[in-house]
Design brief:
Helices cover about 35% and strands about 15% of the residues. By secondary structure, the protein is α/β, with parallel strands linked by helices. It has a single domain, classed as TIM Barrel (Alpha-Beta Barrel). The chain has an eight-stranded parallel β-barrel with strand order 2-3-4-7-8-9-10-11, surrounded by six helices. A two-stranded antiparallel ribbon has the order 1-12. A two-stranded antiparallel ribbon has the order 5-6. Strand 2, helix 2 and strand 3 form a beta-alpha-beta unit. Helix 2 packs parallel to helix 4, helix 11 packs parallel to helix 12 and helix 13 packs parallel to helix 15. The two termini are about 15 Å apart. The model has no long low-confidence stretch (mean pLDDT about 95). Bound molecules: 2-acetamido-2-deoxy-beta-D-glucopyranose. The site of 2-acetamido-2-deoxy-beta-D-glucopyranose (NAG) has 5 residues, from loops. One of its GO terms (biological process) is polysaccharide catabolic process. It is an enzyme of class 3 (hydrolase). This is Beta-amylase. Keywords: Carbohydrate metabolism, Glycosidase, Hydrolase, Polysaccharide degradation, Signal. InterPro entries: GH, Glyco_hydro_14, Glyco_hydro_14_CS, Glyco_hydro_14B_pln.
């Protein structure tokens, strides 16, 4: 009796967390059609039978705006209608990045030809290597064929909003606003063609617009001599010990100036894109969110090297995730954060990886700004250890999006474990033991 009482006292009410499942990257093809509607329908019906709340789909820019200002959303319309008839909700990602080139990418949908044909609007590293996955934020105000990239994003948001007006805020529960590579608000500092885990990555500010911006900022700081990025930050695959900038350069006056300029440019870009999304979707009742990358390697070092090259200035006493949460709060958007399945103990100690501490920092930042936090797993996992880790964050999350739909998820023991995970995320009773 005593033991029973103790257990009851330790039970608390918890909010249910909705579970969404990401569709395959190539569910809609480059020509804008559903790849295989019949097998997709069967998979969605199974998800529904397993009590999943909905699905997430990338809406590829390269598939939906074949020529400037002419939009086609037919495949996505068919998808939303299918979900509606089955009783699943939808999260749409406005994917202004290319499909292909990231971990697990099984597709190849470049950006629209009217932008890929342009020069000098791409992120560039110190070697002059260009990345065409997403337009450089430093080109946000550059006119390309009559429009700036920010105007293109805005026009596209408006097109999506009018095409899906009837379903926004009902079937379509959330729009995740793409703001960079892989849809995440970050620089492409760890491109898979150049980088392997756990290199520090590379600063991406060597295109002409970036260098001009840096020179202007240096001048107004009264330090015209600070007009170039650090030359001692190593390369994609350097470890921090091999790069003076991550030893102590980041703490110098120049280091602080540079990192603030680089990080602020990313924040400004996020604020500008989110603002345009808010204008297009604000009155529809749909929830807005944006993806923030889970850069957990070198997190446990003072320099936070990998976060720095990606634009997250999370060192020298500055809380990058607080700054990011502030701009999301201003736009009424939530943060969608990954690596919720990772345990520190599963990571190699050589990379000072701290996924658990990182998730906690992001949770604290979003909570202090009173914005919603959505979770994702970074890598495919089907095991109870990963599910338990995700469940342990339940009280800090509003929604979880599972990566990803496929036959390996829908069969045998994997499917049983997934159903049990969904039921735990839905449960409003949590035993604190
Ligand atoms: C673009 O213009 C806006 C406002 O005019 C400005 O705040 C922003 O910093 C500019 N962005 C870039 C990358 O130059």
């Amino acid at each position: 009796m005593k033991r029973l009482l103790a257990t009851l006292l330790l039970a608390a009410w918890a909010d249910a967390v909705e579970v969404f499942v990401m569709l395959g990257l190539d569910a809609v093809t480059q020509s804008g059609d559903l790849k295989d509607p019949e097998s997709l329908r069967a998979q969605l019906q199974q998800l529904k039978s397993g009590s999943a709340d909905g699905i997430m789909a990338d809406v590829w820019w390269g598939a939906t705006e074949p020529t400037a200002k002419s939009y086609r959303f037919d495949g996505y319309k068919q998808l939303v209608d299918m979900c509606k008839s089955i009783g699943l909700k939808v999260q749409l990602v406005t994917s202004f990045h290319q499909c292909g080139g990231n971990v697990g990418d099984t597709c190849d949908i470049p950006l629209p030809a009217f932008v890929t044909s342009q020069r000098d609007i791409w992120y560039k590293d110190q070697h002059g290597h260009e990345d065409r996955e997403y337009i450089s934020l430093f080109a946000d105000n550059v006119t390309v064929e009559g429009r700036t990239p920010l105007q293109m994003y805005s026009d596209w948001f408006n097109a999506l909003s009018s095409n899906f007006a009837a379903d926004l805020g009902s079937v379509i529960e959330e729009i995740q606003v793409g703001m960079g590579p892989a849809g995440e608000l970050r620089y492409p500092a760890y491109q898979l063609s150049q980088w392997k885990f756990c290199g520090v990555g590379a600063f991406q500010c060597y295109d002409a617009n970036a260098l001009n911006s840096l020179a202007r900022a240096a001048k107004s700081a009264g330090h015209a001599d600070w007009s170039s990025p650090p030359s001692d930050a190593g390369d994609y695959n350097s470890h921090p010990g091999d790069a003076a900038f991550f030893q102590n350069g980041y703490q110098s006056d120049f280091g602080r100036f540079f990192l603030k300029w680089y990080g602020d440019a990313l924040l400004q870009h996020g604020a500008e894109v989110l603002q345009r999304a808010k204008q297009a979707f604000g009155s529809s009742g749909v929830r807005l969110a944006g993806k923030v990358a889970g850069i957990h390697w070198w997190y446990k070092s003072d320099h936070h090297a990998a976060e720095l090259t990606s634009g997250y200035y999370n060192a020298n006493g500055i809380d990058a995730y607080d700054s990011i949460s502030a701009i999301f709060e201003a736009a009424g958007a939530g943060v969608d954060f990954t690596c919720m399945e990772m345990a520190d103990s599963e990571q190699s100690a050589d990379c000072a990886s701290g996924p658990e501490e990182l998730v906690k920092q992001v949770m604290a930042a979003t909570a202090s700004h009173d914005i919603a936090l959505g979770g994702e797993n970074a890598l495919p996992r089907f095991d109870d250890t990963a599910y338990s880790k995700i469940e342990s964050y339940k009280s800090g999350m509003q929604v979880f999006t599972y990566l990803r739909l496929g036959n390996d998820l829908l069969n045998g023991a994997n499917w049983n474990r997934f159903q049990s995970f969904v039921s735990k995320m839905h449960s409003t009773l949590s035993l604190i033991v």
